[in-house]
Design a protein that fits this description.
The chain has no helices and 11 strands. It is mostly beta strands. The relative contact order is 0.32.
Length: 123
């Protein structure tokens, strides 16, 4: 099981980024995949998750109307489209799987993680 997160970078406030979480070694369509972020000095915070049946759960209220999670099963990849980015969105973003079909907002219930991709929102 391997997850590879990518797509981070430096963006100005109000800009957009699309993060990708490419899975290998397992069919990600059968599992819940979640996106978390971790700012310096803070814990890992749940953002959004997509279940195996493609139900979407938003955990972070401030991002609910700006971030969209989706999956492309043909590419074994889950995406996080982030629009209207704010400086407070600056963090390292991680994707992970619970190893089951359902999502969780708790990082310790995820069994495997990608290495993270850094998002910096600054002018």
């Amino acid at each position: 099981v391997q997850l590879q997160a990518s797509g981070g970078g430096l963006v100005q406030p109000g800009g957009s980024l699309r993060l990708s979480c490419a899975a290998s070694g397992f069919p990600s369509s059968y599992y819940a995949i979640g996106w978390f972020r971790q700012a310096p000095g803070k814990g890992r915070e749940a953002m959004s998750c997509i279940t195996a049946s493609n139900d979407i759960i938003h955990y972070e209220e401030s991002a609910k109307d700006r971030f969209t999670i989706s999956r492309d099963n043909s590419k074994n990849t889950v995406y996080l489209q982030m629009n209207s980015l704010k400086p407070e969105d600056t963090a390292k973003y991680y994707c992970g799987t619970t190893g089951g079909t359902l999502c969780s907002r708790y990082a310790d219930e995820y069994t495997d993680w990608g290495q993270g991709t850094l998002v910096t929102v600054s002018s």
